[in-house]
Design brief:
The protein is mainly alpha-helical. Helices cover about 55% and strands about 5% of the residues.
Length: about 325
């Protein structure tokens, strides 16, 4: 007996849940597949045509078998429909297609489809924009600035400096820093363990300056923390874990205090970590592992940043490059 669309979709989501996919990822995948179902429904003369950018939610029942209409041709029409009618950018469509590709592969395993129509299905994407970065001297200006004279602000600077040093030292994502707990720190071995995208765990070195900043902060943290709170970075009032937006505000504030006019956010320090490390080592694979990138093409963007730096050096120093 064939399974309905509803049963297939629910089974697939249950499989993903066992793979420890995050709730947000599961919801996104579900939305992406339902958009495809809505399109297949509209193409096959179901009672209601779906033509608006935000169609009515699809109600799945035990009698719909829309997935049987999925093939290379219908997928091509879906991609065109999403870009033209939905006004979807190529990068957003690629994300939807990634979910559909994964789901279609699972349908092949269930023998619902004879092949995966999303395999090798690509669309033209605009070049990935280069991330912003800062010179190492500017990062040092941020991290080496003196503590504020105000006592309360000076205590906050001890915490903020530890956050800034760790972001730049180990290339942490904002979410990884916010979720960091005491058991994840191995001060003796100078290591930190984080859980990144896709629930993937990686172990990272902690630089000597970051280690000193953490050692300065942890005694203060012990005074603020409520019983049972394990997060490394907490608020001074309630002793609770810092919200990611609070961390962003503190990073921006400390940049302004250091006299840095460039907009500074936690992810920019991750970019600086990657580009400075790559410029000094040239080891793309090592930088990929430290950043936790699943695909090395994501890391390769930093080679362009390094090339720009080399071009500036060439223009400034080569005798035949100067006017």
């Amino acid at each position: 007996m064939s399974l309905s669309d509803s049963q297939l979709l629910n089974q697939w989501l249950e499989v993903l849940e066992t793979q420890q996919r995050s709730p947000n990822t599961l919801k996104a995948y579900q939305r992406d597949v339902i958009k495809l179902l809505i399109f297949l429904q509209s193409e096959n003369d179901q009672p209601k045509k779906q033509s608006s950018q935000d169609p009515e939610p699809l109600v799945l029942d035990e009698t719909s078998y829309l997935f049987s209409y999925l093939n290379r041709e219908s997928l091509t029409r879906f991609a065109g429909f999403r870009m033209e009618t939905g006004g979807l950018a190529p990068a957003s469509l690629q994300r939807e297609l990634s979910a559909i590709r994964h789901f279609s592969g699972w349908l092949v395993e269930k023998t619902v489809l004879s092949y995966n129509p999303a395999d090798d299905f690509t669309i033209n994407r605009p070049p990935r924009p280069l991330p912003n970065t800062m010179d190492a001297e500017v990062v040092q200006q941020l991290l080496d600035q003196p503590a504020p004279e105000d006592r309360d602000e000076a205590r906050l600077w001890v915490r903020d400096r530890a956050m800034l040093e760790l972001l730049y030292s180990s290339g942490l994502r904002l979410s990884e820093l916010a979720d960091l707990t005491l058991p994840m720190l191995d001060m003796g071995r100078k290591l930190v363990t984080v859980t990144g995208k896709g629930r993937k765990t990686r172990i990272l070195p902690i630089g000597s300056k970051a280690l000193i900043a953490l050692e300065d902060w942890l005694p203060h943290r012990a005074l603020w923390a409520e019983e049972g709170v394990l997060h490394v970075f907490i608020s001074e009032r309630r002793g609770e874990s810092l919200h990611p937006r609070t961390i962003e505000r503190r990073v921006s504030y400390q940049a302004l205090r250091a006299g840095i006019t460039q907009h500074l956010h936690p992810h920019l320090l991750r970019h600086c970590f990657a580009s400075h490390l790559l410029a000094g080592s040239g080891d793309l694979r090592a930088v990929q592992e430290l950043l936790g990138h699943a695909n090395i093409s994501t890391t390769q963007i930093y080679t362009h940043l390094d090339f720009e730096h080399l071009t500036k050096v060439y223009d400034q120093t080569h005798p035949r490059a100067r006017k």
